[in-house]
């Protein structure tokens, strides 16, 4: 039974340097019991270092890490009730599935009957009840993933760490495994901490996501929060797709600001949450492709509008994307609905683009980078 009053994992002001490299800078977060938490960030931002400190393979230079309310500083990895699934899964190729899963139970001295019962139980829970006798090479990629998770979960960890476990899979299997991992987490009701540089994985699977950049957590929130209410320019640019322009604030009008972009567009937008901007500031403007409205032909240009020509269509069924080339040469991405009819937008069409001020946000340039 999980104790909902105690968080499964808490990091307080954790820092780690390697010589002059500050790999993790003052990271604090708390994960409630039984949730799916992802740490999302670009290569080199410090994700693996943070994960290795949670697992006990590295010690922080300062700060504290607690599991189930108890500090685990200086507790060796095998004495922390944390298990880890690696990208290459690390299944033992010379052992069959049953023996792979049983291995950890044997190490802690479980008896034969208990091992048999627990291995079969976990195989049932990962929906592979009949594969115990198979060799590892006889499993599909997705089955190997589930066995790697079963091998950890049979030991009933407080927290399961997953270090980019889908990285080695082909695209189709990755898509299927995203859903499967989320269902497995729900089924085991154990906290999963998942690290990835792939925002679509983090958004689909997680209850909450921490966006990490340059050793720091920029923002922690639900996928919806991060997507709709980014608090820094980095989060706005890293989570989901956005068109961006740089420009200068020409006026502040209540909740909105006017920006004159470097390409000469007048854009009305709102400052990102928590961002303060003043007239004269240099800002980056973000507009998501799904908020850009496309009309065929040319229309008079007002605020938040542009004219261009369709350069390319990235076909993806009904929800496709048009790449529209402006006179200045820049490309603007626009989500378009294609019905297969004669009215569908096509390459070389002249189009007008527009969006509403509430769907355009700006942050001071350089913030969060
Ligand atoms: P990736 O997604 O590419 O694995 P990451 O976000 O996991 O990257 P880390 O591997 O944690 O990033 O690395 C963070 C920074 O710390 C990088 O600059 C890296 O070069 C540095 N670093 C990590 N481990 C060591 C080490 N043992 N010695 C020196 N520098 C290290």
Automatic annotation (TrEMBL):
It comes from the Bacteria. This is ABC transporter ATP-binding protein. Keywords: ATP-binding, Nucleotide-binding, Transport. Belongs to the ABC transporter superfamily. Pfam families: ABC_tran (PF00005), TOBE_2 (PF08402). GO terms for biological process: quaternary ammonium group transport. Gene3D superfamilies: 2.40.50.100, P-loop containing nucleotide triphosphate hydrolases. PANTHER family: SPERMIDINE/PUTRESCINE IMPORT ATP-BINDING PROTEIN POTA (PTHR42781), SPERMIDINE_PUTRESCINE IMPORT ATP-BINDING PROTEIN POTA (PTHR42781:SF4). The lineage of its organism: Bacteria, Pseudomonadati, Pseudomonadota, Alphaproteobacteria, Hyphomicrobiales. The keyword GTP-binding does not apply. GO terms for cellular component: ATP-binding cassette (ABC) transporter complex. GO terms for molecular function: ATP binding; ATP hydrolysis activity; transmembrane transporter activity.
């Amino acid at each position: 039974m999980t104790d909902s009053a105690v968080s499964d994992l808490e990091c307080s002001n954790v820092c780690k340097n390697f010589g002059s490299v500050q790999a993790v800078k003052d990271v604090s977060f708390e994960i409630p019991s039984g949730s799916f938490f992802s740490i999302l960030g670009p290569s080199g931002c410090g994700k693996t270092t943070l994960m290795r400190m949670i697992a006990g393979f590295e010690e922080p230079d300062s700060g504290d890490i607690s599991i189930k309310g108890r500090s685990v500083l200086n507790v060796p990895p095998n004495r922390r009730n944390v298990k880890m699934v690696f990208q290459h899964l690390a299944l033992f190729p010379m052992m069959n599935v049953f023996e792979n899963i049983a291995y950890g139970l044997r190490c802690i001295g479980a008896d034969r009957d208990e091992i048999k019962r627990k291995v079969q139980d976990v195989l049932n829970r990962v929906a592979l009840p009949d594969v115990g006798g198979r060799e590892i090479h006889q499993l599909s990629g997705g089955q190997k993933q589930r066995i790697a998770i079963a091998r950890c979960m049979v030991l009933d960890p407080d927290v399961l760490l997953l270090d980019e476990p889908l990285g080695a899979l082909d695209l189709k299997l990755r898509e299927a495994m995203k859903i499967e991992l989320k269902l497995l987490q729900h089924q085991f009701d154990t906290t999963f901490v998942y690290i990835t540089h792939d925002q679509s994985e983090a958004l689909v699977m997680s209850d909450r996501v921490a966006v990490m950049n340059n050793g720091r957590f920029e923002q922690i929130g639900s996928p919806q929060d991060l997507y709709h209410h980014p608090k820094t320019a980095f989060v706005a640019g890293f989570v989901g797709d956005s068109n961006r322009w740089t420009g200068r604030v020409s006026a502040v009008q209540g909740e909105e600001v006017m920006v004159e972009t470097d390409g000469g567009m007048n854009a009305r937008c709102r400052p990102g949450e928590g961002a303060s901007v003043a007239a004269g500031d240099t800002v980056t403007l973000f507009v998501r492709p799904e908020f850009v409205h496309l009309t065929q032909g040319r229309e008079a240009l007002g605020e938040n509008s542009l004219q261009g020509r369709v350069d390319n269509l990235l076909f993806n069924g009904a929800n496709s994307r048009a790449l529209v080339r402006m006179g200045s040469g820049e490309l603007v991405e626009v989500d378009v609905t294609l019905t297969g009819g004669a009215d569908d937008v096509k390459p070389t069409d002249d189009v007008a683009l527009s969006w509403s001020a509430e769907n355009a946000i700006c942050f001071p340039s350089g913030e969060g980078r």
